[in-house]
Design goal:
By secondary structure, the chain is an alpha/beta fold. The chain contains nine helices and twelve strands. The strands form three sheets. The chain has an eight-stranded mixed β-sheet with strand order 3-2-1-5-7-8-12-10, with helices on both faces. Strands 4-6 form a two-stranded parallel ribbon. It has a two-stranded parallel sheet with strand order 9-11. It is globular. The protein starts with 9 loop residues before the first strand and ends with a strand.
């Protein structure tokens, strides 16, 4: 909570996806300064307008970076806090966002093409982008000092993963009925998610991020939003087990629990299962 308006600044990756889009809508309508890396800016603008975000709110609180999540320079640009905050904070260094929210993933289709490495590639690119900020003598940005958040830290990482990828030593987080479908139909995307989680853990262990929370929702639906009071949350040690959760409620849970509330609290460093 270190920006001048006492709210975290946020970088969003995968901003047109259902869960991250829902979180972004809430953040913008609650006057959080955000940056979003997207391949098609017009698609994001249309989506936000259709979800009740006004054009004036978009113009004031959202900085859109046109680019790809596999492009290190584009990711670095998106990790810089909103230009309005750069101008308000008296400092001799560029300011990084306080929080990173990543919901990048491939749309799963049983018949169409599937990008089985997008989560891995995006996680590796994010790691490289953050590492490029770590040493002013070697970074390619030309800055004379090492960029950090307004509070002098590294960004906090929030990323969306999935249930069904626990290790053999961890309690299962799936219902018995859902287990066969997850393990066979979703084997390829889950392999990508496991690699992504390992890379993000490495990013944090290297000190490139100031901690993390992984969000592991159960099977995602496009159903209506019920609110966080209907959402059950657990950890790897004691997972919340259920069948489904809507993308709208995942986004709201992320916004209320991980952005509005202090990330150094209950869910810091956890892999959180959420479901109805």
């Amino acid at each position: 909570m270190s920006t001048t308006n006492s709210k975290s600044s946020i970088a969003v990756f995968g901003a047109t996806g259902g869960c991250t889009a829902a979180a972004l809508v809430l953040a913008l309508n609650n006057k959080y300064y955000c940056t979003a890396l997207v391949r098609t800016p017009s698609k994001l603008t249309s989506l936000l307008l259709s979800r009740g975000v006004s054009q004036s709110t978009i113009d004031t609180y959202l900085h859109v970076v046109h680019g790809d999540a596999r492009d290190v320079k584009a990711v670095q640009t998106a990790l810089l806090a909103h230009p309005s905050l750069q101008g308000r904070i008296s400092t001799d260094r560029p300011i990084l966002v306080d929080r990173i929210v990543s919901g990048i993933g491939s749309t799963v289709s049983l018949t169409g093409p599937f990008d089985g490495k997008i989560c891995r590639d995006a996680a590796q690119t994010l790691q490289q982008a953050l590492a490029g900020f770590s040493d002013s003598s070697t970074n390619e940005t030309g800055w004379s000092s090492i960029p950090k958040t307004a509070g002098g830290k590294r960004p906090y990482l929030i990323y969306i993963s999935t249930t069904g990828i626990t290790t053999p030593s961890e309690p299962k987080d799936l219902t018995r009925l859902a287990t066969p479908f997850y393990h066979y139909a979703l084997a390829k995307p889950h392999k990508d998610k496991r690699v992504m989680e390992a890379i993000h853990a490495e990013t944090v262990s290297q000190g490139l991020a100031d901690g993390f929370t992984a969000v592991r929702p159960s099977f995602l639906t496009d159903g209506k939003e019920w609110g966080v009071n209907r959402v059950r949350a657990g950890t790897v040690r004691k997972p919340a087990i259920g069948y489904t959760i809507s993308r709208l409620d995942v986004g709201r849970w992320i916004f209320e629990k991980l952005i509005v509330e202090d990330h150094e609290g209950h869910w810091a460093g956890e892999k959180v299962t959420i479901t109805y």
